[in-house]
Write a structure and sequence with these properties.
By secondary structure, the chain is mainly beta. It is 15% helix and 39% strand.
Length: 246
């Protein structure tokens, strides 16, 4: 059986054909017979659907990434043991628009367990698949994490999931990332630190329901949370980045 493959020339031809078809003017229909031609034209104009959104252009979903653009001071918290306390360090990040507003690129400088590292994150919204797509690469490995997910109606909370192979164990794991704009992450109270379910760890227990983001703080602070999901479905937090605008 022969497999048909689309070469780059054919793919380019299809793209050009689609663009040309989109630029063809719509054919005008004659006014209804026996009616008022002017009235018929006005009625047709009123019923004409809105112009379709260009799938190749950035739109409102891309605009929801704007609050993360700028320079940030970071507090990093890293859990190496889900039953233990996180190791805290400091870092910086700078996020900018690239490719004419289609993606944001973040350069992150931080420290992980005494080892300095740099990460590059690129995220955008795929108009065709209707989901956010985020890639993460850093100097701690040769992997590329590819996240896909959605946001809430307001665009203030995004949840994305990536699949990867753990370099240490070789197990197939998932990573769930949650990015929250504004103050939708109240700090844990001392009572919450001590009241844990039997057998549950501080990092693995369910977090309290987030409060609605404060509109005054959107664009000034945001929180990135990372959760590892093991093959048996167990989930625990392994990383948290709290960002405050410089």
């Amino acid at each position: 059986m022969t497999t048909t493959r689309l070469g780059p020339t054919l793919a380019l031809t299809l793209l050009v054909a689609g663009l040309l078809a989109a630029q063809q003017p719509a054919q005008e229909e004659p006014p209804p017979a026996g009616g008022d031609a002017e009235a018929g034209t006005e009625e047709a104009a009123a019923e004409e659907p809105a112009a379709p959104i260009d799938p190749a252009a950035p739109g409102p979903f891309h605009a929801s990434l704007e609050p993360e653009v700028g320079e940030w001071d970071l507090t990093l918290r890293l859990w190496t043991d889900p039953t233990g306390e996180p190791v805290e360090s400091r870092g910086t990040a700078e996020t900018r628009w690239i490719l004419d507003g289609r993606f944001v690129e973040t350069r992150l400088l931080g420290d992980a367990l005494g080892r300095s590292f740099e990460a590059r994150i690129i995220e955008g919204y795929d108009n065709n698949d209707k989901q956010y797509v985020r890639t993460w690469r850093d100097t701690l490995g040769t992997y590329t994490m590819v996240y896909r997910g959605t946001a809430n109606t307001e665009g203030t909370v995004r949840t994305l999931v990536a699949q990867f192979t753990d370099p240490g164990s070789g197990l197939a794991l998932r990573n769930r990332a949650v990015i929250t704009h504004g103050e939708g992450f109240p700090p844990a109270t001392p009572e919450a630190e001590t009241e844990t379910a039997e057998g549950a760890s501080p990092a693995a227990r369910a977090a309290p329901a987030p409060e609605p983001p404060d509109p005054e703080l959107i664009g000034k602070v945001y929180l990135y949370q990372s959760f590892l999901i093991t093959p048996d479905g167990t989930e625990y937090k392994n990383l948290e980045l709290e960002a405050r605008r410089r």
